[in-house]
Amino acid sequence: MIWTTTNRSLFLFLCGALVLVTARCGRLVTECGGLPLNSERLSVISNAAFESNSKAYLIIPNPLDATGNFSVQSLDSSLGSFLDPFSLIGLNMSNFLENSFLKVRIKSRSDGYEQLATPNSQGEFRFSVPDIHYGESMAYHSVTAIQAYVEELGFQTDRTRPLFVMVRAQGSTSDPSDVNAFYDHHHFNPELPRELRLFGETPHAPRQDRDIYWHEFGHYFLESITLGRGIDNAGDLGSVFSEGAAIHECLADYTAESLSGRGYIGRWTAKNFPNEFPSGAPLRSAEDKSDSFDRYNKVSQFESTGANLDRYRLAEWCSRVLWDIRSQMVSENSDEGRFYADRAIFGAASLLKKDTSISDLKKALLAADEELNCGIHTRSITSAFISRGYPSEIPQISKPLNLRASLVWLNDQPGQFSLSFVISNPNGESAKNVQLILESADDRITTVIPTQGYGDLGANRSITVGQTGALPLDYSVKGSVDTTQNYRGARFLIRVKIENGPETVLQGAL
Amino acid sequence: MKKRLAGLGLLAIVLMVSLMVFRRQNFAVNVSGSKNFNARETLYKLSLSDKLKRPNINFGNSENGDFKALRLTQQFILENLDRFPIQQHHRLRGETLKSPLGTLVSYKVYQDGVPIVGIQLDFRVNSRNQVLELFNGYQPVVQMKVEPDKWMTIEQVAALQSSSFKKVESDSKTLTKPNIIWVESGSDRAHWGYVLKVVDLLQKKKAPEQAIFSAITGQLLAREVSRGEFNRLPRP
């Protein structure tokens, strides 16, 4: 072909037109989509297949899940044959289970090194399951493994303060059957380390269960990626229920469940509650169970018994939504889908606001998917919520909720007061995410528990707190005054805030 | 005709390049609804007069952070002082964390080295150096006067609270003055505070927790609740 001036001009014109059309209608690759993941490395880490000279002998994730024996207890002599070696990474000194960030202890931060686990002559941390040092080994291995995983996904974790893990913490009561695990981020005091405390000395002690460490790490991780801004500030300050608290538990459960590849958590620890959980049943499940946790309105609607003010109910529903999203991504890509799901869900978590809500979580998931995956999961994310009963459109209500409240001085806590109240919904639709907020309008009043949440309030239903037969004052807000000063006449505001309608505001005075 | 076609082709290329630049500037996920800030533009636009107008905001040094993200967010704050009325007596210390959605930047606030708890600023700097505001919790809290003769001792606070708490003590043996300034949620009301370890008189909780008491009056200001694996709720 003769490359004439005419042809050249025409060629240039067509090129320009083609690029113009592409730029206008298409999407530039650099505009969306996260960095590619190193799936091979993630697989190694998620299987805890580290290389290290230091090893601990453990039954992963716990004796019940490892053996499939629902009757197994930590004292069973047969468990010795189930111990397997696992590499321990990042140890500061090979003699103790700690590194520059993670410090494993038994009772408290001030435990002397002479009390702690040390390796045998082969450099192995090898103990029987009931031995307290076994718990220390499980703690170190579990936390370092999951931290390595989230960091490989691209999430740097906050190491400005160390994390202490107490595997059999000291408490104000000494009842060994009182089983629980707590995470303290210590928002108030920047000088304090983060703390994870496990309690209980039973045949199914929490310290022997990797699920517990991974769930509690999930709380630390969530605070880390949200920069401690308080996605559940209400709960941090004492609210019994808030959607932020439920989301905190939901994401902590999801973190543990997703990395373990099992859609449930805590079968070992649930053995401590035989009246509440059948043998072998988990504490909570992200997989479909066709039970009351499958539908949003079963866990979100306020009931006079206060049953749905258990944050774990909404949390379990939420974890099923996330599991549905994860399952979709795994079905698209069986090798790497779970990694992309985790990255998107944790990425969404990092966008959550202070005192977040389920509706915020949904928006954040869509936003994270838009930025990391070019929005190709918009439909499946939306469907995951709708299929579990979350409304696609939330109807607005026109009338504010009614509020009648009276002041109650707390006799056992001088200088502190609470509110006894009735909130009622006069509308024909549910009020979404009802919150009672106490605000000080006077320097003489400080709000100690400024917010309480109550979930969704159905049409023509009411919430009663602080009256005979109703919920106790633990479910109300709380303020305090300096009793040595004259606080008479000090003013405050009470707000009832909802997501889908106008606020109610009352003024009060002491 | 030939020249006309060549000219059209050139125009098409110019239009294409312009659209690419335009689309890049407008694509950003803005979670909070606030103005997107293209740091690249501001770097080029800052003039000498702008620099002279810049107030003296005290940005503390972050020891190990993403310095580019810190610099970009600091410029963002300086260019949006109507949204961030940072007081002269406050020092902002920035910390960064990397994430797949960019670098997360948080500024904690201090007065004379004392942390002000309850206010902070959070941003995200995405892969294209756009600064996105995640959370603006800043309050223009007045400068807290340092008046040690008005401060209670920890022992005095513990005695005042003895009818509510079995134990009130400090984690640190050397604490002799308030260790934080506490800002009440949603307000600019601030208090000199002691953060102390407490155990309920009624022992409702299993282990000690942290509480803030006013260093001036000894009254309870706030209490930090631990996150438990299970719940044991009070029933009607």
How would you describe the overall organization of this protein?
The complex is a heterodimer of chains A (510) and B (236). Chain A is of the alpha+beta class and 510 residues long. Chain A has two domains: 43-387, Neutral Protease Domain 2 (Neutral Protease, domain 2), CATH 1.10.390; 402-509, Immunoglobulins (Immunoglobulin-like), CATH 2.60.40.10. Chain A has helices at 5-25, 39-46, 63-67, 132-152, 210-225, 233-236, 243-260, 267-270, 296-300, 311-332, 337-350, 358-373, 378-387; strands at residues 55-58, 84-87, 102-105, 124-125, 163-166, 180-184, 194-199, 264-265, 284-285, 402-409, 416-424, 431-440, 445-449, 451-457, 462-465, 478-481, 491-497, 504-509. In chain A, the strands form five sheets. In chain A, strands 10, 11, 13, 15 and 16 form a five-stranded antiparallel beta sheet that branches. In chain A, α5 packs across α7 and α12 packs antiparallel against α13 (378-387). The N and C termini of chain A lie far apart (94 Å). The model of chain A is unreliable at 24-30 (pLDDT under 50). In chain B, strands 1, 2, 3, 4, 5, 6, 7, 8, 9, 10 and 11 form an eleven-stranded mixed beta sheet that branches. Mean pLDDT of chain B is 80; it is low at 22-53. Chain B is 25% helix and 32% strand. Chain B has helices at 2-26, 39-45, 48-53, 67-79, 154-160; strands spanning 37-38, 58-60, 91-99, 102-111, 114-125, 130-136, 165-169, 180-183, 190-200, 209-214, 220-224, 227-228. Chain B is elongated. Chain B is an alpha+beta fold. Chains A and B meet through α1, β6, α5, α6 and α11 of A and α1, β3, β4, β5 and β9 of B. β6 of chain A pairs antiparallel with β12 (227-228) of chain B.
